[in-house]
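Below is how a single chain appears once it has passed through the pipeline. First comes the sequence as given, then the structure the pipeline wrote out for it. We keep one example in the README because the format questions we get most often are answered faster by looking than by reading.
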Amino acid sequence: MKELADICRLIDGRGYKAYRRLLGRHDLGFGRVLRVDHVQADPFAPPSRMRVQVPWAGVDLPEASLSGDDRRRAARDWLARRFRAETRTDNVLGIDAGGATVLDRTSVLFAPEGVEFRLLVQLPGRGRKILGKQAAVALTERLPEVLDRILAAQESRDLIRHCEVVEDQAAMRRALSEKGLVAFVADGSILPRASGVDSAPLEGAVPFESPDSLRVTLDRPNAGPVSGMGLHEGVSLIVGGGYHGKSTLLSALQTGIADHVPGDGREGVVTRADAVKVRAEDGRAVSGVDLRPFIGALPGGADTGSFYSADASGSTSQAAALLEAMEAGSRCLLMDEDTSATNFLIRDERMRRLVSEAEEPITPFVDRIRDLAARGISTILVLGGSGDYLAVADTVVQMKEFRALDVTARAHEIGGGTPQPGQPSQGLPPEPRPLRVERLRTAVLGRKGRMRIRVRETGLTVGAAEINLAAVEQLQDPALQRGVAWILMALIREEGAVLEDPVRQLTAWLEKDDWHALAGGTPVDAARPSVMDVQAALSRLRAQAAIY
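Resulting structure:
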């Protein structure tokens, strides 16, 4: 540690590039090792990346926090959050700890030899001159002090509580399929958020309460049985007037694929992990999707059996997103009328009489939704104005002043009886498309061959490839986007020109504990994505030649 401090003081006042002398391994004492993997080019560049490895002998965590995969993931998440809390006012030390959801992040890892913290360090400078004395204090005094505090057992009660809440959510999510459910909302959950930019629960919000007819009970290994609303497999509608809580409920369900921290209010909301929110996305790229289940022959003879577009319409983009999600393995689709293309959702009777089927290439979703249910693909759909769906729904929940009512019987009465079984449609769900790895490699590497990753407000840049992810609502956490980027980098390292079944390959990779090492680097601020996440990014990548 003295040697590290001496280096920092030696380069004090020099040009910023002299910080490169920190690269490599440094002994911090007591078996702790600091590895400096990357030093930022200047004070305004992204932070430097460092790893601190602490042997298990120097870690005083309760055994209960390390028993089982769910608790270990929660314990790593808790350590990252505690590190961030301890360094919140620091201008140097930082870590990726996320928001309300507990993701499988690379910021803290458990290895056989100990705990590894992967840090984002803003090395201090004035202008382009090094503030070496401040760097020495941060790395050799402040960093060990923070580690000592968070690795001691005095806060084990909070840690155990964090682990128990996460383990309970994971257990409830696994129980959904056993009970024929796609989603569950516990009684007492607080669904509204403080604001569009504040994910904290809204003070004074109406606690959720299940209609008696939809109430089910799920077991939790720690907190015991919990009752709430269960949405069964099939077609579920969420209806009601404007501002009564329809989209708020759907928003909670779409984030229910991940676990939430204690006190979030949505710890009792769980959705099947393969659920995907599908919406219209004017102007997105579409690459090689077979749209024929929803869009037939187009004027001019354009092929929809393997459809390509650099500027897709609302209906085409939504059809593509739905088919891509199913291709990646999703069996639960979430949709909101407000973010859907009207002509994709429905064609009412008057319009069908005016424009014949022979003149309309689009088969509306309402005509396919029972077919999907027959294939084991469920849909949860928020509606405020499309009454034709009442005839095809298994369950209809009305939100009235943020209270849930089961209006299924009345909906069937209005819609003309209970829904008829669907006939499985050809091409649903779609088969995985072969991925042209050599074209993906060209698109990502570009002419310069640089592999820089950047997360922007509108999406992701991987090397030379721009991917607009602004409309992929379940992929908005920057760490998830960086996780996708690391998987894309692993893909371009694959040998061969074509990957015949990319979904199977991605599934195998993402089930590995060391998924983040596939690309050959050491990400400090990534989170494990799903296959659906990676598929969403691949499908939106703009390339000169189609990658599918």
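Residues 383 and 419 are 17 Å apart (CA to CA).

See the next section for the split statistics.
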